[in-house]
Design brief:
This protein is α+β, with helices and mostly antiparallel strands. Helices cover 30% and strands 21% of the residues. The chain is built from seven helices and nine strands. Strands 1-9-8-7-2-5-6 form a seven-stranded mixed beta sheet, sandwiched between helices. The chain has a two-stranded antiparallel ribbon with strand order 3-4. Strand 3 and strand 4 form a beta hairpin. It starts with 5 loop residues before the first strand and ends with a helix.
Length: 210
């Protein structure tokens, strides 16, 4: 066992450190892993704004943005995402894996959050203390921890874990192609899917609205 330097945070401390101090001031990249994605609000430049507005601003500055999630994002998040042409065009890359349950935020490849909070208002968002979830997590700049988090993230993101996965039949959008016949079974179920580039698929009416 090797000692590491880390800080344990809870509740609104997580929001302030992870979102306000680190995510908003990222310079190169932000990689997020979460089980749940909702249209959370955060403080930025003296007002409360949707997270997608912040991400759109980071994308405009040329940052690499990744979002790895287990479930289809909430309808409000998808609607807000769809209004941001830069994010839709790939400024925010999204991939879905139903087995993702770890929650992590890696900023600039040099700082990481690991904990219980999802990318939701009651998790990492600007909720009041009396209504937010009870969450715990730690933040660190330890290189070994960051390397291990990044390795898992890349393994899932690249599809390296897909080939032997036993949940492919229920996966909404496998990162690598399915064996012959499995894709046809999945597509016959219908429902909302992510596109080949992992960007949120929009219906015709939504496309016209842009």
């Amino acid at each position: 066992m090797r000692p590491i330097q880390a800080e344990l945070l809870s509740g609104s401390e997580l929001y302030r450190e992870v979102v306000l101090e680190k995510l908003l001031h990222a310079r190169e990249s932000v990689w997020i892993a979460t089980a749940n994605v909702k249209a959370m609000y955060v403080e930025s430049k003296g007002r409360f704004v949707p997270l997608v507005e912040v991400l759109d601003g980071l994308s405009a500055r040329g940052l690499s943005l990744r979002l790895l999630h287990a479930e289809l994002p909430s309808r409000p998040f998808r609607a807000a995402f769809d209004e941001r042409a830069r994010l839709v065009a790939g400024g925010l890359e999204l991939k879905v894996c139903p087995r993702v349950h770890f929650k992590a935020v890696v900023v600039d490849g040099a700082w990481a959050y690991l904990g219980s909070a999802n990318l939701t208002g009651a998790g990492l968002g600007a909720k009041g203390d009396a209504v937010r979830n009870f969450e715990l997590g730690f933040v660190t700049e330890d290189f070994d921890v960051i390397d291990r988090v990044t390795a898992l993230y890349e393994a899932v993101w690249s599809g390296a874990e897909c080939r032997g996965c036993k949940l492919r039949a229920v996966c909404p959008d496998p990162i690598i192609p399915a064996p012959k016949g499995l894709g046809e079974m999945r597509s016959s179920r219908g429902g909302v899917r992510l596109g080949k580039t992992r960007r949120l698929k929009r219906h015709t009416s939504e496309s016209r609205r842009r």
